[in-house]
Specification:
alpha/beta; 11 helices; 8 strands; Rossmann fold
């Protein structure tokens, strides 16, 4: 397992899967160990995936100053990884909350970014939050069976403040395109893979300056793909399109039938779409 030392002396780990051109991959969660990304639906067949364990997650060390879990402090970790890998410019992929880290990194270091893939990203960094109404509308689009009707009821309760383990167990099928054995195992592993203290600090007060980040993203010359799941509501496809528009060469696409983890729902489609973009920018 390779490691490197970042700006404040914290030792960070990353995992390498596959061969080919490197693709630096940043996990979501927030602050979930990168293991849940797997090989991203077979993307490792043509790419060398560099899966970073963010500080305090997976095989990376806990920092001496835990205030550095805040996402803006982690921009320097991504830059330290680039230097460690000896890359002049990087291809980047980020999932979910990790999208905010990439948005901040790209705004701060636009010259270091080649092509970027944002997979079902949140966009707090540019002040594009998902509203309660959007979440409920997306969830209610899956009504019609006992499984999803119960999930929708539980999720509505969570959004109304009934945030219990029992409610989440009922609501979780909404986050996957298919609620099968693979999805159940993926969800069950999440509790052990996430640093909850770090997650609480990730988007803490002072983490974001949306006007400055938006201005920085306008200087990103590389192509950007924002990939939404057709069944996802965090973000919904419309919000993914609005995020793509903040980049000079941004494009949005939607994976039909996919939830928040689209490489699990149709691995072949997902890996082919991402590889095509990385190869051609389209």
């Amino acid at each position: 397992m390779p490691t490197f030392t970042t700006y404040d002396g914290t030792e960070l780990a990353y995992h390498v899967r596959g061969n080919g051109e490197p693709l630096v991959c940043l996990p979501g969660g927030a602050m979930r160990a990168s293991v849940y990304l797997g090989d991203l639906g077979g993307l490792a067949a043509g790419r060398r995936l560099i899966l970073l364990d963010l500080r305090g997650t997976g095989d990376s060390a806990i920092p001496a100053d835990e205030s550095t879990y805040r996402v803006d402090h982690q921009v320097a970790d991504v830059e330290a990884l680039r230097v460690h890998l000896g890359l002049e410019r990087m291809d980047l992929l980020a999932h979910s909350a990790g999208g905010n880290l990439v948005q901040l990194y790209a705004a701060a270091h636009p010259e270091r970014v080649r092509r970027t893939v944002l997979v079902t990203p949140t966009a707090w960094a540019v002040d594009l939050p998902v509203t309660t109404e959007q979440r409920l509308a997306g969830a209610r689009g899956r009504a019609g069976t006992e499984l999803y009707d119960r999930a929708i009821e539980a999720y509505a309760g969570i959004l109304d403040g009934v945030d219990t383990d029992e409610a989440w167990e009922l609501a979780v099928p909404l986050f996957y395109g298919r609620w099968d054995d693979a999805a159940r195992a993926h969800w069950a592993a999440g509790e052990q893979e996430q640093n909850e203290k770090a997650a609480a600090a990730y988007a803490g007060p002072g983490a974001f300056d949306p006007p400055a980040t938006r201005a920085g993203l306008r200087r990103v010359a590389g192509e950007v793909l924002v990939l939404a799941g057709g069944l996802d509501f965090n973000p919904c496809p419309d919000l993914a399109g609005r995020l793509a528009e903040l980049f000079p060469r941004g494009v949005a696409d939607v994976q039909a039938g996919a939830g928040h983890f689209p490489w699990l729902d149709d691995a072949e489609w997902f890996s082919a779409r991402v590889e095509r973009f990385l190869a051609s920018g389209r």
